[in-house]
Every structure is written in C-alpha cells, then in structure tokens.
Amino acid sequence: MDVARLAGVSPATVSFVVNRTAGQTISDETRQRVLQAVAELDYRPNRAAQGLRQGRSATIGFVNHDVDFGEFAASAIKGAHEVCIRQGNLLLLVNTGGSNHQAAQLIVELLDRQVDALIFAAVGTRPVVLPDAARRVPTILLNCFTSHDSTPAILPDEVRGGREATQALLELGHRDIAYLTGKPSQWATKARLRGFRDALRGAGLNPRDHIVLSGNYHADSGYELVRTLLRRNRLPTAIMCGNDRMAVGALLGLVEAGIRVPKDVSVMGYDDQFQLAAEIRPALSTVRLPYPAMGRLAAEQLAAGGPARNGRTLVHCPLVMRDSTAAPARRRAGS
Amino acid sequence: MDVARLAGVSPATVSFVVNRTAGQTISDETRQRVLQAVAELDYRPNRAAQGLRQGRSATIGFVNHDVDFGEFAASAIKGAHEVCIRQGNLLLLVNTGGSNHQAAQLIVELLDRQVDALIFAAVGTRPVVLPDAARRVPTILLNCFTSHDSTPAILPDEVRGGREATQALLELGHRDIAYLTGKPSQWATKARLRGFRDALRGAGLNPRDHIVLSGNYHADSGYELVRTLLRRNRLPTAIMCGNDRMAVGALLGLVEAGIRVPKDVSVMGYDDQFQLAAEIRPALSTVRLPYPAMGRLAAEQLAAGGPARNGRTLVHCPLVMRDSTAAPARRRAGS
DNA sequence: TTGAAAGCGCTAACAT
DNA sequence: ATGTTAGCGCTTTCAA
After folding, report:
1. CB within 8 Å of chain B, chain A residues 43-82
2. Can you tell me the mean pLDDT for B36-47?
3. What percentage of chain B carries pLDDT values higher than 90?
4. How many whole angstroms separate alpha carbon B178 and alpha carbon B200?
5. Which pLDDT band, with edges at 50, 70 and 90, does A295 fall under?
6. CATH number 3.40.50.2300 given to B57-155+291-315
7. N or C terminus of chain A: which is more exposed, having fewer CB within 10 Å?
C-alpha cells in the first residue's frame, strides 16, 4: 500500500486510521501524516479486497422477477436505493424477465459477487417460488409472496385500499357504484374487489346490487367497459376502476358519450400512476400504490439484522382525492 | 480451496479446469475428478477474489442522473442488462437524483467497487457535466452529452423523428398541421420542432403558416393547448404533440368538444410510451423512443473494447402508425 | 502506540 | 500434465 509508504507507517496503521477502527489508539501525529498521504494520493480502499477479507460486499442484490420492468420496479428501486446509500450499500440489479430458470441463474450470479442480501421483487403482486439459492443470504420479498409465507414479504394493503376508495365515494353520497375491475385472476384485483364489497356492506348496501365488470388493467379495457355500461339503461353515479390506466380509458369513453366527469359521473382510479393520474383532466382521484415506501421498507428490514419477523408486512395505500370525484347530481330519475 | 483437497489436486489445477484456461492441458482423468468435486461441493468461484486478482469485477456501473427514475431509466436499464448478462456482467445501479454532487460521490462508490465501466444516463436528453472521477474507467453517455462531445454519447435522433412524423401526416394529405410542443427549453423539443419544420419545407410548405403552441410534456398541457386551439376560428386537420402524454390530453380535449379522432382531426404523439400509446382509444400513432435499443447499444459499445469512437451515436426513432391518424376529411370549407 | 504476519479466495508465472 | 509459489489489497490478531 503506497499510502503506508508515503506516510512512513505500516499498512495496518493506515487501515486503523482510515476505518477509525474502534479500540485502536493512534497518536494524533501519525494520524495526520496518514490522512495527508491519503489526501495526496487520493486513496480509496478497494472494496473488493475489503469484501474478500471481511466476507461482505456492501452490496445488495435486487431481483426484478417479471417481464415488465417499468414504473413499479423503478419506484421500488428508487426507494430501496435511497435507504441503501444511507447505509453505504449499493444495489446490484438483475432482471429475470419472469422466468424462474433465469431467476435461479441470476441469483447465483449475484451470490458469486457476494451480495450481502437479496430483494426479490415482482411487478404484479403475486405468489412466486423463490429459487433455493436465495436461502444463502437474508432475503425479502417485495410485492410478492411464497406459498407458506416462509420468507418475509412486503405487500400493499389492497383490501384496505379498495375499501377506502369505496368509502370515499359512499361518503360523497354515492349509492350506485360500478366497479370495472382489472384482470380477475390477479391477486390485487381480488383484494381490491373484496375491499369494495366490504365497504358496501359496511354502509348497509348489498354488493349484489352493484355492477362489477371484469377488465384487464389496460386503458382500452376501461374504454370498452364504459361502453358496455352505456349500453345498459342505467348509468351508476360513480365508477371505480381497476387502475389509473383503465380510469383514463373510462374517462375517454364517458366524455365521448357526452357525459361529464365528475358532474354526471364520478371516476375513481387506483395506483396514482406517475405522470398520469395527476396530469389527466380531470385529475384522477385514486389510491396510491406506495412503491417507493415499499422499497425503502425492504432495505430497512434487511439492514435491521436480516429479516426480523417472518410473514407479511402490509403497507397502507393512501387515498388521493382529486377532481374526478364529486357528490352525485341530485337527479333521482334514471339515466 | 476444499475442492482441491477433495479432488486431491492443487488449487491451480482446479482453477484451470473450472476456467478452461487456454493453453493448459489437463488429463481427462483429473478433470473428471475436479468436476466431480465441484459438483459435490456445489462450488462456485468467488468473484470478489477473482476480481481482486484479475483487476476486473465483471460489473458495470449504471448511473441514472436525474430526479425521475421512471420509464426511461427502466427501459434503458433493461436493454443494457440484457447485453450485460450475455457478456457475464452485472449492473451496479445508482441514482443521483439529478445532483452533480451526488453523482460525483456515487461514481466514487462505484469505482471503489471496481466497476469495469460506466453508463451515465439522463432521463430528459440534455447536456451534463461528467464528474472527473468517471474518467478512470471507460464511460459512455446515454441520452445526454458533454459540452465538446468529449465522451461518446448515445442519443435518439429526434430531428429525424419529428421529420418522419410530419412526413407521415403530409403523405396522408394533411396541409394544415399544428404542433403542440413540449417544454420549449428542452433539447428534444427543439430537435423535434426542427424536424417538423424541415418536413414542412421539404413539402413546399411554409412553417410560418402552421400553428406552434408551447406546452410542457404534461398531459394537462395537451388538454389546455387544444382548448386554446379550439378558441381560434380555424382548427387544423392534424395535431402533432410533444409526447404521448400531451397527445392523451389533447385527445381528451378534442373528444370533449365533440371532435372525432381521427375522422375530424388526426393526432400524432411521440415516445410510444409503454402501456399508454397502444392502449388508448384510438390507439396513438406515434414515434418510438428506442430506449431499450439505446441501453443495449451502450453496453455493446462498452464491451467492444471501451468507447471506440468519440462523438455522438444517433439512434433512429421508428414511426409507429396506429389509429389516431387518417387522411383529412374532404371538406374544403373552414372550421 | 505501532508493526509484523497471516490469510480472505483466487490466478498466472514459473517450475517440475 | 500438474504443482508450487507469490501476490492482488485489505484487515486483524498478536506481539513489541
């Protein structure tokens, strides 16, 4: 180590000074000499060497286990990154494209590089099988879960999100609310729908009196479902959508039919999608999917000495009321 | 190395067979013995140690230099990742939040971890100052550039994109095209506008006869600008938008005014934004920003022995014609 | 208060 | 055809 040579001390001493090793007492004079040499040579410890010696790499593997690698991953990574930086860790990122085989392979690559921990994330909340290799380091699941909750998982509280969105509409005075759901097979869809029904029942209403139409989370499905709705004789006073994209499609279909939002019909989204929900006219009332917070939480739990508790951590999805919802018009007559 | 012990050979021999070191000839018998020991112990070389020895980490730093960390970064990373994996590299990801200070700091963190190269990316195409530290490894700029093009950069060919979008409209028969631009100060805005004007002139038209209104790339600005347009007495037969979000806003404004797209007016977007352009009704004709291709290119150029050529590499933005554009209605009368 | 020495896991040059 | 040795850059006893 040339810093040692320049400062006229041993490498060990340099290490002590640079790392402020506890329990080591270095004279102020030598410390200054070392520090000066460090500055002069622009010295930075080689973390690969450090890692080799200490058995840790100050690096966390982030596995995105899905075909899509978009907004969700970006937000979650941003949150996780933020916390990691604060702890001196960096994220080694990997994208499986949704293939379990790739996932297993890439986790091995991550492990070869001695990552200290793993964050295993999916885009659409869903069950996953965690490759065995992952068991060699602390691992936390983000937006996904294993069959017996054998690995700690961080999930959005979709039931509550669906419930609170519905309650907001009920409080506005709506009594006839249609739900245009996302893809029925998805976990989130079922959970949100459950929240919807819970809220209805909680208000003394019968869920069976409310129209539920199944879509697929795409904008065009919102558009199509609204047209289906329009073909019926009676329009609800409020429409809940599977997500913001569907809400935008719904908006388009409604406006095209000459129906004003929120004057004639209220529209509620879900996700609070970046650069969409707040920007659309009227600005969408919606429920925020707390991806950055989930990412942050994952990194924090990992830092807190590995997965403390097993099981699921549900993260609240806050309601965001904007301009696409209002009290229903006071016409009691049908359509 | 316990593999060596189990196989009854020296560590060097293990290294030779595991890495298939060229120029080393190992008897089939020992090779089998080693391979078996490897399998038995589930042995994987420690890449930190390998890196220490060989001076390379099989890791590339990806710096996202912007506040936003959304669709662009995700797509570019996906592209870069794809190529990296093929080469046996992994991406160490870092997010500066747009701060130069953070950027410098994080690059040092990356360098400490011995990254072999750097990809430095911005979300909105723009000039950047590359932290000095980055000069220590091969670096390539993605969607950004330095003042004297001192570092190789990969950029979308926005001028051509703007031109080809306009030409498509012209070929459809449009002679009165309005342009609702994005944020005027941005590089991309200027380039696309230039393409627009080039195309107009190329068709013997005078750009001055065409309305250009300045927006800011947000959906609501598309909506507002359309309303401005509607307040004038004469509506163009086609509207080009700064990006897809603005196009969606424009669509909403148009439909709200009872104007059919593309029957009465054609609408052209830009970006081909994931889960938006293709899903909206009518599906948006647009120009694709080739982010994944750009990411791939970056990784490839880095692999090809460091930045071969200096200067800029322009990547083509292909036109994507969908349902929001059509030939203009054959009414020659005004409004 | 400091230094010497060993060793983390691996590979490359040089023996044999 | 295989083994020996040295050392990548660092940290950590242990001894001085």
Report:
1. 44-49, 51-52, 57-59, 62, 68-71, 73-75, 77-78, 81-82
2. 93
3. 85
4. 11
5. very high
6. yes
7. C
